[in-house]
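Structure ticket #2291
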Amino acid sequence: MQFHHHGYVSGDPRIQPAAGAGIDRPTELPDEVDVLIVGSGPAGMLLAAQMSQFPQVTTRLIEKRDGRLVLGQADGIQPRSVETFQAFGFADRITAEAYNIGWMNFWAPDPDAPDRIVRTTRTEDYALKISEFPHLIVNQARVLDYFAEAAAHGPARIVPDYGVEFLGLTVGDDDVEVRVRTIEGERTIRAKYLVGCDGARSGVRHAIGRTHVGAAAQHAWGVMDVLVETDFPDWRIKCAITAAAGAILHIPREGGYLSRMYIDLGEVAADDDHRVRQTPIEEIIRRANRILHPYSIDVKQVAWHSVYEVGHCVTDQFVDDLHNPRVFLTGDACHTHSAKAGQGMNVSMQDGFNLGWKLGHVLTGLAPAELLRTYDDERRPVAQQLIDFDREWSSLMARKPGEITDPDELSTYYLATAEFPSGFMTQYGPSRIVAADAAQDLASGFPIGKRFHSVEVVRVCDGNAVHLGHHAKADGRWRIYAFADAGGSALRAWADAARGIVERFTPADADLDAVFDVKVVYPGRWEDVADVPALFRPRSGPLGLTDHEKVFAAAPSAWTSADIFAERGIGADGAVVVVRPDQYVAHVLPLSQPEALERFLAGALRSPVPA
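Resolution: structure written out below.
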């Protein structure tokens, strides 16, 4: 963590100095804002945390609740989300309080006594096999707390405006008139852009005439967070249980005692009219005990419970206008599905991450408004992939014993599809911010359009081992990683040319690394690195201090065993890897073609940049 570049800091370095809209921020909602966020769920709070890094932009978040969420519905945190938390600065803290999923066990009817269940498979969880991040369980309310802290501690000092209800909107040529209700009454706010993060019954979605498309609910599940006494031997291990009496997905929760249970309530009749939602908690517990036989649970306390029907829907488009979007939909407002695959909160947060930096770039003049068209193009296909995956997983979970031909099918599917639920399968297609003509073979381990997969390297200034990707924060900046050639001559020539390119797209009054965080990785030992081009040791802040933490070496050291060149398929000629502010690889280029980097950035950003 670097924090003395603007002068000595003696307080909490996570609290950044207020700037722009964060200085003397009014407590009352202003009549005009740049960005208005409706809803303080995972997508909305992440978006607020990201927009807080753009203090030149006036952003407000309204929420009809009177205060913070107390009991969160979602709880599954996939590795990609933990990677995102790392960028926002709280991965370590939330991991410390969360439950880490190390195993998933599978139970099925005993062939010799079908009314009893037996453990059939023990499966190691997938998270740490495919990334350095764990698969966690933690209350959604705590996730929102951490994002709220990041938003409040960012330069724009964003905090939710609670007790404000969205009523409707009118989209104009240059802004959106938003009607809201506060304790004082109704009023209108003008926003350049509006983001609906207001859930499955989204008022924003309804107001712009967008509709959910997909299958109606056909199956009901009860869910409860409970404190129990039980003789079930796997109570603190995630389990998928299939029995003659139904199915349970059992997930231990954080804190050592709490667990969540999804209990199969069966098919929903066509004329049910949501009456299944009135199923009492006593009936849900009774069904759980029938499924668990010969084991049982004695429920001491129910922290939260609900009944939901599985439906799979994707909104027909995620914006009001594909050509000139002013209103955006995120999370449950534009995709709904079951909760059992642990995807809702995770995919919703990536919606917010995808959109936030784009709004920041457009509103600060770094990029043209056309950049915002990529939001629907990129996120709607991801939502459809989620629906397809969740439909299959839900169907497998809901099967009756007589429909199961292979007792290991569920565990096999769980592991075979691990990369998708973990959040690492997302791959954005070619656009103005994802190159179509990349030299992928120069860095085969950094696929274009997929998230930047970090590897440990050695920081040259101090010899410490660090994950290269963990050095990147959610501060709205692009990352450019230059992997040096064996001799270093190509790198030096590239750095000379690249400095002018970086300056072209950086405001004249800003630090050299204000828009692009440019780093270099040398193939040899850290002790042997010398004569580093000035581009990789820029001066920053009002004191003009040299940043020494942008130079790395790949060779194994006393503290590392991996070599990023070998791990990610980078050869002796080196490569340049361009990464977007939301951590997705945008381009791979040879060191010999700095002009190709300039052409790509000219299509993504604006030049000259307003000061």
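Closing remark: The longest strand covers residues 212-230.
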